[in-house]
Amino acid sequence: MKIYDWPTGPYPARVRIALAEKNLQSDVEFVPINLWKGEHKRSGFLAKNYSGTLPVLELDNGVVLAECTAITVYLDALAGDPMLTGRTPLEKGVIQMMTKRAEIEMLDAISVYFHHATPGLGPDVELYQNQEWGLRQRDKALRGMHYFDAVLRKQPFIAGEAFSMADIAVIGGFIFAAIVELPIPQECVALSTWFERMQERPSVRKQLAIVPPKH
Amino acid sequence: MKIYDWPTGPYPARVRIALAEKNLQSDVEFVPINLWKGEHKRSGFLAKNYSGTLPVLELDNGVVLAECTAITVYLDALAGDPMLTGRTPLEKGVIQMMTKRAEIEMLDAISVYFHHATPGLGPDVELYQNQEWGLRQRDKALRGMHYFDAVLRKQPFIAGEAFSMADIAVIGGFIFAAIVELPIPQECVALSTWFERMQERPSVRKQLAIVPPKH
């Protein structure tokens, strides 16, 4: 199978970490789509993913899967431990909820900030910006960090007692926060401690070793 | 179990349709949270769902699930046909992808339009509006309708050959489009025909019979 992505992208990181956790990297050919040149907004790529986002998984039979959660659910159902999307109905539900919350309250909010209230991918790619909206989303992400800090004061992982897709989504948030130079608030001690613990996982350490270049 | 929702809400409709498909309605006590009074933004409710959205499922042991996809995944894993979230890894992945796409490209876009570029839930609830952003999201939703129309020219359901959670998400989009009086473009014949076919399902017909009141 192929993964269309850009190695330093925060969303691609989610699927790369999931692949490493499932030990599936060697089954994948990575095809670079240059975000900084806007290749993800061109018609050839849009035919694969209408929403124009990375990453995209393409199976050998040509079937295409977009969206990090969808790709992770697929990979997780293919085989093996660790299970990233849960085993019981309740685990599955809670992990889906916390993953979505990580997107809404942190990762996606930082993405909107990046694309709308910073130079983002540059004037050739960012054809419309709404700075006020971007700044509000930055503030939302900061509130979100405090929320996840409160979650992690009560439990070791974002969705409870085990590492899951929801942790990976928040790690994506940390990666994007570093790119936009949005510091994690100092008082979010549980969140910072959790992030240090996450870096003990080879899958995460390997991804974080890729320094996010601006170009 | 309890569902906190508001009967005419487009997102609550998604879970109500899923419950009806799974024949689980009689297991549920519905607790009204009045959107028009902003009850979903008050601290009591925010303690249940940080994101302040409806619906929310509360189990008898007090565990709380928010987010339509998460709730549907949970209900679907509990028992019985029809399976709304897929059986094979690929079915699961495709349904997750198309559900997310229905949100991004139609349902969530209409929601942003409603809350930002119309009076929305009224001045006591809509404390911040960004009209320009709202109008862009309206246009995005209209493009999304054309996208789903193209999808339905090639296959009978949003995620392929079977009814799924992704169809329910687009139905949520139709419900919200009716509330904001955003007509489905006439040229989207496959989309309109699909929606007529969806109304043959008792779960959908019952939900659509609830006329959306403004208050």
Question: How would you describe the overall organization of this protein?
Answer:
Two copies of one chain form a homodimer. Chain A is of the alpha+beta class. The first copy, chain A, folds into two domains: 2-78, Glutaredoxin, CATH 3.40.30; 89-201, Glutathione S-transferase Yfyf (Class Pi), Chain A, domain 2, CATH 1.20.1050.10. Helices cover 52% and strands 7% of the residues of chain A. Chain A has eight helices and four strands, in the order E-H-E-H-E-E-H-H-H-H-H-H. Chain A has helices at residues 10-21, 43-46, 68-78, 89-117, 131-154, 165-179, 189-198, 202-208; strands at residues 2-5, 29-32, 56-58, 64-66. A four-stranded mixed beta sheet of chain A has the order 2-1-3-4, covered by helices on one side. The longest helix of chain A is centred in the middle third of the chain and has 29 residues, at 89-117. Chain A is globular. Chains A, B: Residues 88-215 form the GST C-terminal domain. Chains A, B: Residues 1-83 form the GST N-terminal domain. Chains A, B: This is Glutathione S-transferase.
